[in-house]
Design goal:
Blueprint (H helix, E strand, L loop, with lengths): L7 H7 L4 H28 L2 H17 L3 H15 L6 H34 L12 H7 L1
């Protein structure tokens, strides 16, 4: 068995089993996480220690909200290295972080899809009835 990039059980428990909230978190991360990582990559390519530290801190925080502790630990290493001005080792750590994040995304996407399907199914229950209320005043005003 490979590395567990996030603790699915802890993530679900953190959101009280509320699929809607968890689904929103995952959708948000899947949209914004790559942008945050890109900002970190740009800062690392420029050798900007202050920006590396800031971006790595943000990446680590996002990952901790997802209970992706192994990946967050890599981001924290990058943050600590930048905080001490050791940016030369950051590029090697960035490669490790990028690989780990790709694998994490590969684990998160199926969960996000599963939650999306459950949310859609919840709203499509046959016992739920959509009631259309016609406002007579609106109809008269429109005529």
């Amino acid at each position: 068995m490979g590395v567990e990039w996030f603790d699915r059980e802890a993530l679900v428990l953190a959101y009280g089993g509320k699929q809607q909230h968890l689904g929103k978190l995952l959708r948000s991360y899947l949209q914004e996480g790559p942008k945050t990582l890109a900002a970190l990559c740009t800062a690392a390519a420029r050798g900007d220690a202050a920006q590396i530290e800031c971006s790595a801190h943000q990446v680590a925080g996002e990952l901790l909200r997802l209970h992706a502790r192994p990946v967050a630990a890599i981001a924290r290493q990058i943050e600590r290295a930048a905080a001490t001005g050791r940016v030369q080792g950051v590029l090697a750590l960035m490669s490790v972080l990028e690989l780990a994040m790709r694998q994490l995304l590969g684990s998160l996407v199926p969960l996000a899809v599963q939650l999306q399907r459950a949310e859609v199914a919840r709203y499509a229950q046959p016992e739920d009835e959509l009631v259309l209320v016609i406002d007579e005043d609106f109809n008269e005003a429109a005529a």
